[in-house]
Amino acid sequence: MKKLIIIKYGELTTKKDNISFFIKTLRDNIKASLININHNIIYDKGRMFIETDNFDEVVKVLTTTFGIHEINIAYEIDPSSIEEISSYLIKLLEDKTFKSFKVVTKRSDKNYPLTSVEISKKLGGLILGSNSNLVVDVHNPELFINIEIRSKKTYIYFEKIKGLGGYPVGTLGKGMLMLSGGIDSPVAGYLALKRGIRLECVYFESPPHTSDAAKNKVLTLAKELFYYSGYLKVHVVKFTDIQEAIYKNIPHDYMITIMRRMMYLISEKLANKNNAKVIINGESVGQVASQTLTSMAVINEVIKMPVLRPLACFDKSEIITLSKKIGTYDISILPYEDCCTIFVPDHPVINPKSDVAIEYESLIDYDQLIKAAIRNVETIKISAKDADFENIL
């Protein structure tokens, strides 16, 4: 009898002709994350199996890996009779405390002489025969006993650990996340990762108006996202000259509109330069002046690249709940301002007009300012081995 980990794919099984690509990508992502842990991966279209001597660390990695529906710590035995399976099972049950149980059988090997229901009944009867104090409870048992009979091996497991689901990161290409220090954008990045999109990030800083602490806060948020992706770069754009030109020359009610248009233009150029297919941000409809439908349309029109807004229809409480779940909330609420929160006018326009925005933009030489900003981009690669961001806050 051998102890190992079973991974179940869930949504990946709907991919039919492309399933091999999705599963291979999942395997490669897991392998990269387990590079410092002794392991062996065996997989097919139905299941993935991991052999290791460090179960706790492997499970910890798997629970932050997208593309996994369920994780089971299982015991593998050779295909055998019901009596032999029961013998192994009763031995495993010696270390467990419970009064009621239910046997759930899945039989992918249709040549096995008994059906799934017959196997469950037989095993249940043999377990009851070994301990008269136990009872079967098919509705609310204290212990689920799971049996999987496959063509080459039989597996016994008790615990089901829920995976993150979604698609393996990298199966759907790359996106450029507009990452700020707020609550929303890291959550948007997490949801994009869940749909298989590999991320690079763009962060706009405005020194001396924004501090190193604000920048380090964003890098810490990026590291939290790294744990779910296994790969992350942050492109830091110095936005000071552009922001000051807007503040000095643009009517204040249009400042946020023009600023966001400049950010979109820069994000698109960086996305194209780094082979990203979409821009991703944390905008939620109606949350602030720049996120009304009219504002989003006027801001969006300066670029051709698609923009994904995973949080578009989330309310703030839903976003906060998810940010706490993924571990970014406590970082996001640290009181360090980013360039989106400085120079904010008292009454920003909520229904900007495209022709007015274009007219105001002509008051600044934004094309040259954008070129200069892109020339001076600082790119930071986040790594699991980096200790630089552990104690920066």
Topology:
Layout: E1 2-8, H1 19-33, E2 39-43, E3 48-52, H2 55-62, E4 68-77, H3 82-93, E5 100-107, H4 116-130, E6 135-136, E7 143-149, E8 154-157, E9 161-165, E10 174-178, H5 184-194, E11 198-205, H6 212-229, E12 232-238, H7 240-249, H8 255-273, E13 278-280, H9 293-300, E14 307-308, H10 316-326, H11 329-332, H12 354-361, H13 366-375, E15 378-382
Parallel strand pairs: 5-6, 5-7, 10-11, 10-13, 11-12, 13-14
Antiparallel strand pairs: 1-3, 1-4, 2-3, 4-8, 4-9, 7-8, 12-15
Helix pairs in contact: 3-4, 5-6, 5-10, 7-8, 8-9, 8-13
Individual helix count: 13
**Which structural class do the helices and strands define?**
alpha/beta
- CATH fold node name of the largest domain: Rossmann fold
The shape, in one word, is elongated
How many β-strands, per DSSP?
Answer: 15
Note the gap between the termini.
Answer: 48 Å
Using the 3D structure, state the CATH architecture of the largest domain: 3-Layer(aba) Sandwich
